[in-house]
Structure formats: C-alpha cells, structure tokens
Amino acid sequence: MVVEKVSIILTTYNRLGYLKDCMDSLLENTICDYQLIIADDASTDGTQDYLKELVASNNKIAITLLLSKVRAGVSSSRNQGIIRSSGDIVALIDDDNLFTKGWLTETVSVIQAFPKVGGVTVYRPLWEIIDDPELLSPLDLYEAENDGVKCMIIKYLGGGLVMRKSVWQKVGPFSHTDPRSGIGRYSDRIRKSGYLLARTRRPVVESMDIGHHPKCRKFTDFKEYTDSISPEEQREMEFYNDRKREILEFNEKHGLNKEGLVVEL
Description:
- The protein has a single domain, classed as Spore Coat Polysaccharide Biosynthesis Protein SpsA, Chain A.
- β2, α2 (47-57) and β3 (63-67) form a beta-alpha-beta unit.
- It contains ten helices and twelve strands.
- It is α/β, with parallel strands linked by helices and 265 residues long.
- The chain has helices at 16-29, 47-57, 74-84, 103-113, 126-129, 165-171, 183-192, 222-228, 231-241, 244-254, and strands at residues 6-12, 35-40, 63-67, 89-94, 97-99, 117-121, 140-146, 149-154, 161-164, 196-200, 205-207, 262-263.
- The chain is globular, with a radius of gyration of 18 Å.
- Strands 3-2-1-4-9-6-10-8-7-12 form a ten-stranded mixed beta sheet, with helices on both faces. Strands 5-11 form a two-stranded antiparallel ribbon.
C-alpha cells in the first residue's frame, strides 16, 4: 500500500498524571512515521509546563504544541489540531490512552483497505470490558475482509477516531455549541454522510478510565461505570444508548449475530 502521512492529535485538559503515562506509551508503541500535535485546553495543573519540557527533551519525534490560554472545549482542540495537521490521515486520541505496539499501523491499514470506511475506532468494545446484562447490545454489524486486512463494521464509534482528513472536510468540524459533540455524535454524522464505521479486529488502545491494562480502572458493572463519569460523558452515553433499538432492528432484519459474518467490500 502507498505510504501516507499520518497526524496524531492528542487533546488534554488537567489530567497531568494520565498524560504522562499516555505519552510514555505513545512514544514507545507508535512505530511508523507520524506528525504529533498536542492541544491543551488551558490546563491549570502544570500540564503546559510538562509539555514544554517534553518538547525540549524529546529527540524521538517533532511535537507541535497548541497551548490555549482560555478554555474552549475539546471540540475546539480537535478542530484546531486537524486544521494544523499535514497528514492525509488524522488520529484523534485522548490523554488517558494506552497503546499496543503498532497500533497506528494496524488502524491505518483498515482506512487504506476499505475506501468506504469513514472512521475507525481503536478502543476495545465496552461490552468486552464489563460483563453486565444491562450493558448496551453489541454494536458490531459484520466482519469485513479486503486485501488480507480484517475489520469489524460497526454502528457507532465510542471513542478514539482515525479518519482521512478529507472525511472531516466533507462532514464538517466538531460542533462548538452541542455539549454532546464527542466522538460518538461525530461518528453518527460520518455515517449519515454515507460512510461506514469500523473498529480494528483486535483492541489496540485502552482507556485508563476503563480497560484491561493494569493501569486501567476496573468496574464490576455498568452502573458503577456510568456513576463514575462526568455529566458530559453521561449525556454522550445517553446518545449511545439511543442506538440500541436501531441496532437490534438492523441485526434482526439482516440476520446478523454477535459473531457477524465475513463479507468483502
């Protein structure tokens, strides 16, 4: 496949402890060439000083810092990062992420193998983390394979978005006015613009807020998890839950099960 330039855009706000672990994991496990842009949304916990020191001491890769003096929200941080990116493909990640070796190469291969896919999530599905009967119904639709690359076509992206910059240009920027304008809401816009959504066949990124990695927080059930997240994240989860009936109806109509089926796109 043709080598395309990738821009990683990491957004952060007042989570210095998470950010340090995230950066260690990112620099260690991202093995392809990439541009790194870090957008801080006016943190007050020493994040900006840490980032300046990181840029001065890091000799692995050039880092572009976008340091805001006034809080504008994560949507603004993502949009500004994409505007300043030089890559054909952009990877939007958060400051609580931990990465597996080669995560970006594996994700980009899905983008390149499936032209109809507009966005790829890199996270482990939530139902694989919390075994709870009250949890959302699985969002997987079917497994797809092309040129030896496999992915799972899904109905909704819960977090961690990799897409072509041209998709963002077509769909439009993240909303500054909608308080629920997270990755999930944006993935719905991608889908309604005529693209498919996908996830890598194996999880390549964990969130320190929840996951299997030793540094991740653990939850015994879905309610414990939702009680722990912010009001903004809870609003996003409500939008997430709104997709349950639509997914069930789609699966019933097409005779799909959780394991899915193999098709070529």
